[in-house]
Amino acid sequence: MQTNMESEDTKKIQEMKTDLNLLLECLKYQMDNAFSQKEALVTIHSICQQNSNAGVYFREIGGLIFVKNLAKSSEHSMVKEAALYTLGAVAEQNVYCQQTLCTSELFEDLTWFLSDNDSNTNLKRMSVYVILVLVSNNRIGQTLVRETGCISVLSHLFRTVLSKYELNLSDKNVFQNYQLWSSVCSTLCVCVNNPQNDENQMLCCSLFPHANDWLINCMQPEIIRPICSFIGLTLANNTYIQKYFISVGGLDVLSQVLVQLESDSHETLSSAKLAVVVTKTVDACIADNPTFGAVLSKYHIVSKLLALLLHESLDSGEKFSIILTLGHCTEDCEENQYDLFKNNGLPLMIQALTESQNEELNKAATFVLHNCKKITEKLSLSLGEYSFDENEVEQLKDINMKEKNLEEYWKKAKEILHRIEQLERAGNEEKIQTEKYEDTFSSVNINIQNTFKHLHADSSGGGPKAEDKDKSPSRRLQSHKSHEAMSKACTNNDQMKTLLKSANPVNTCYRESGQNKTVCKTDSSSNQNVCEETTFEKKNFVSQSSDHVFKHPTPTAKNTKQQLPVTDPFTLCSDIINKEVINFLATDSCSKMLKYRCSGCIAVGKSLNSRNFSKLLHSCPYQCDHHKVIVEAEDRYKSELRKSLICNKKILLTPRRRQQLSNESTAPGGIIMEPFGKTVSIR
Fold first, then answer.
1. Cα separation of 452 and 54, whole Å?
2. Which one of 56, 188, 320, 654 is at 20 to 30 Å from 412 when CA atoms are compared?
3. How many CA atoms lie within 13 A of 367 on its CB side?
4. Where is region (Disordered) located (predicted)?
5. What pLDDT digit, counting tens, does each position of 45-96 carry?
């Protein structure tokens, strides 16, 4: 089967070569028949389009050079057009053919076709097409188009092909001229960029005033799109050209066009899409010079961009362009920053940050939020610097309050990242620690078993002593865990700071707002330390559970999702950030949840002992996991102790006393009388 396929491919290649040889011979022997030559050229073009290797073979047999000479020497315009069309198609398909044709001689011939008054519009279009193919992704072609003067001829066509601002594309002649003008715009774009060419950018910037006139007088998509592409690529990454464009009023013109298109976008979808194109061009103007954003404040561009961002027809890529432009507008312009606050821009950025899964869009939104911090500090100090009316002052106060809540939002997000990093860095160490904890627990179980044995051997005073023995190793275990976790957190303190700074490529929004708060407080009371260390232990060693990432006594942390691989900090903490944003936008209801805390966790300041602490835990309906285990263990211990004492003492009692004992043992807290006058209290 494979042999048959290979033989078929070989047969097709051989047929292709035969066809190209015959067509080339036809071109050579039909010099007096222009129609036959045109048909042969069209067929060659078709073959080269279907097979990328056909162009290489056609070049090897000398067909490429022959067609180039034919385009120059033929007296028939349609033969010249067909020859140029074939050259462009072959060069577009194969880079080797592009390099073969990329000579100063061909550029001079193309320049002559463009400048000759006898050349019709279609011949000029084919010439521009060949220039476009030769220059695209080719620095040598960009150099030749400048040195041969071809770029000057293209600039002249850009100015003169369309003479009237009223563009009637239904007219055949106007439509042909528009097609030529559009091709010229595309060719100038590849002359200045892809790769970027500073010298060609300098030559093409002289066309900015003419482009501004067209934008002002003809706001049609057929004009705005090519001109915006030309402007954006001509001034991209070139601060000198950007300054020149702004000096000739280009940024003002773009702002006026954007305002008009945003106003029309409420009625037509095409206006919204076109406004995004203009937005990208505006962003290219101010990206390297944020101070130029002050020009946009005169036209309230920030408010227009925020309104455009709410358009439902825009996709994530278009929204990213708008948010990135907002970031450059607010980077170094306080007027634009205030405009963002005034028009409810902060909640929109937070919404984009929490809802979108687009990483680039999240970076842009974070960039805008970082810029907002700069003016917030100034506005919080003084409201009299700007002339606001009463409504604006109230809005500003509300914005400042939201910004304070946003600081808490950032702080909690960083705290979450800190915790996650600690859990991840534990790694193999956690396994070793788990084994140590299992050994400790096994020793506790051995102590408990020894206690029961002691009770069977010697019943006198066994209850209270056994309980003390059970409490003691548990406390030592908690203290051991707590101190290990505290030392680990202190060791990784500097690493956590580095993590917060590098969590997102737009790392300026992750500046540290303060030192990490101390988790455990030192107190002279040993009982208080036990509770605090238990809380610390929960926060740092809950990774042993596979169902919950963060277990905490508060109900707000019981439905936390399973831990995901670390990719992006906002993606990783999306659930928690969503909760924080909801709390930030809604009323503060966190205080209502405090009454559902475990009594054992919050009764640290009281004087506790083995008796009142047990009663406190039994009376609490909202026990945390830790204290619930303590209560259950204590109940099991008391039950076993009660059974053991009853079995050992029942045989020493008279029937009357045995009945009395049986009645008393059923009641909680009953008293068992021993035969030697001792009493055992069952709590």
1. 94
2. 320
3. 22
4. 454-494
5. 999 988 888 999 999 999 999 999 999 999 999 999 999 999 999 999 999 9
